[in-house]
Amino acid sequence: MSEALDPNLTYDDAVRELQEILSALQSGELGIDELTSKLQRAGLLLDFCQGKLTKTEAEVQAVLKRLGLEGSE
Question: 71 lies in a domain?
Answer without folding.
Answer: no
